[in-house]
Design brief:
Layout: E1 2-3, E2 6-7, H1 31-47
Antiparallel strand pairs: 1-2
Length: 48
């Protein structure tokens, strides 16, 4: 189970899935916002 590409399992993230966060998440044009969110989550988890 994931929420905006972030899972409860350390190191497991998703981007590019249809409707991950918006209807464009599965498209090249929409994956950037999801990737930015996931990158922020990774950076936050690395600081802990």
């Amino acid at each position: 189970v994931q929420k905006r590409g972030v899972t409860k399992f350390p190191g497991l993230y998703f981007v590019g899935l249809p409707f991950l966060h918006t209807s464009q998440s599965g498209l090249l044009v929409g994956v950037g916002d999801d990737a930015s969110h996931v990158a922020s989550a990774i950076a936050t988890s690395e600081k802990q």
